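FAQ
Q: What does a multi-component entry look like?
A: The components come first, one per line:
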Amino acid sequence: MSSQPVAGFRFSATAANIRKDGRIDLALAVADEDATAVGVFTRNIVRAAPVEIAAERLRSGRARAVLVNSGCANACTGEPGRQAALTTTAAVARELGIAPQLVIPASTGVIGQVLPAERVVEAGPALIGGLTADGYDRFSQAICTTDRWPKLARRELPSGGTLLGIAKGAGMIHPDLGPPHATMLAFLFTDAAVERARFSAALMDACERTFNACTVDGDTSTNDCVIAFSSHRAPSPTDEALAAALIGVCGDLARSMVADGEGTNHVAEIRVRGLRSASDARIVSRTVATSLLVKTALFGKDANWGRLLAAAGRAGVPFDPSVATIAIGGVPIVENGLALGKEAELRAAEVLAQPSYTIEIGLGSGAGEFSYLTSDLGHSYVDVNAGYRS
Amino acid sequence: MSSQPVAGFRFSATAANIRKDGRIDLALAVADEDATAVGVFTRNIVRAAPVEIAAERLRSGRARAVLVNSGCANACTGEPGRQAALTTTAAVARELGIAPQLVIPASTGVIGQVLPAERVVEAGPALIGGLTADGYDRFSQAICTTDRWPKLARRELPSGGTLLGIAKGAGMIHPDLGPPHATMLAFLFTDAAVERARFSAALMDACERTFNACTVDGDTSTNDCVIAFSSHRAPSPTDEALAAALIGVCGDLARSMVADGEGTNHVAEIRVRGLRSASDARIVSRTVATSLLVKTALFGKDANWGRLLAAAGRAGVPFDPSVATIAIGGVPIVENGLALGKEAELRAAEVLAQPSYTIEIGLGSGAGEFSYLTSDLGHSYVDVNAGYRS
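Then the predicted structure of the entire assembly, as tokens:
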């Protein structure tokens, strides 16, 4: 990936001792001037304090900075949590010489602990002193929690300029992002000039096809958010080019999150076709993608098409099972609702040993289709989540 | 449990070599005369051949026998599967000297394999020769698959007579039973006289509060069915007594299935209160009960209330998080949406070490409440399901 900076933005990260392990855990991105800023937030009705404040502040369509910590979600923390988010963003705003309303907070980590505001405030000067145009790598590392790797994606716009995306997320991944409300976090930075209304609509559309179409464990977080900034330092892209860049970057980040899903070894794209509508296909692909029996079969590299069909059948969407087809990585294993035999399944099982593959499920002759990204689920997922807080 | 027979019914089981391990795998229950018979079946639209045939035959409201095999679900097997179910029930009917339409088939096991009809037919004479009034214990053993123990429950009716229930189920447990369509299997036998319409309505109502309110892995089977028989050898119970007996027996069987859930160590009753309606409370309790992060926390004996609230919040039902309360086994850990502290959580964690407990989630002052049974999810679940077919 190219490592050019995005004109108009600087990045920094430091260790503020929010995490117990001493890793960098506080990140800051600052625009040189007020940027156009839009966001989508979790539709979970239990929303963290930073999510509430970010949503309020982004109503203006403008922002200057985003302050992100890992190690503490600052969710279910009531008024003390809200005060901590206000205090920390105010301190950073003061150091930057800007209004507090221009600093957007975001948090990720354990639910139910109040953000230790004094540690963030103390780390402020070091954080701001470290701002550089190529600091996004450290930014991407500081926001990780159970992630095994940081997540960055980039697209160049044909009209000039760049779209850079930074995300974190490995567990509690089943984003349900919507306006006006988003623990995956994703931050997008572009120097291309995009006015607010167009940016907001294009971002929501891209989220619907990427973050909102991926799952690790089916659990939607209290802290999910995607926030996008434009510095207007490069020409304005066409709608098509903007959409392609947003879908490209968000799609790369979503796939990286699922690949890095807690305990994950494989990424499976569940592509459902032939239903009456894309929304029907979305429901079926999501039901298959979140099925525990499907996910454990993928962990076992077992071409268990019975579980795939059984999951499709319980989605509540009508189809004729006798015309169903299933192919794994292009290897047909079911036609007309019936198994094609052991040899086909053995060839499909070879595909299931690969790190990523597509499972195509045909359920009729309708035009409705949708793809959902999911992961296998095995022992490591249990290890990570049975002892996460201890 | 009392071991008296149920007047008018005999039971048998044998090894028909459907399973590879040589265990008994074929069970038969026969009424001395035509019995009133009603059933509820899976709402999964991918339904096994025996489910289709059972639903057709029970339209008459009468049956004489139920023939059940483990080791093969006979699901997704098309016309050959249907023929196998027809052939085997016809052979048993012939031996019994009754019409084939009076024999109800049921199957459980791997999806996608056709029932080996010739082995069932060969085992017929031994099966029928073994019928005895106290054969229900062997019947209950023969229908097990990944079950660790057989499941029986019984209630005596105040007006006289008995209701005996026999069930199997440990995985792919998230029943969604409805008229006219249910791999949990449950068979209920009563000598109390209950006419068809009343039996059917009371059975559906009991299922809604028991089997349809329990989950192991969120996956609804292609083969679930509950079939109830009355031999009319004892007096007719009141509606209240019938409902109490059905809910009692089905509730015991549902709890036993969850306790025996694949890899399960704990049974948790998720009781949600204070919402506008029972159906809202049902949606929230089901969302919490099926949350992977909740289930892995229960495996870890971690009083992780943040995951409980986050799951409730994504259910799509409105509530005010700032009034939320949570108690585990009577130990309050959250009030007014905020944690009560480490000491409370440590006491709650002691409750979580017990084999069964209740988690109460209060979400307001409404009258709507509902209880859902769920299990913890740990390494054994992964072991059972990553290698089930191999």
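Q: Is there any commentary attached?
A: Sometimes. For this entry: The CA atoms of residues 95 and 343 of chain A lie 67 Å apart.
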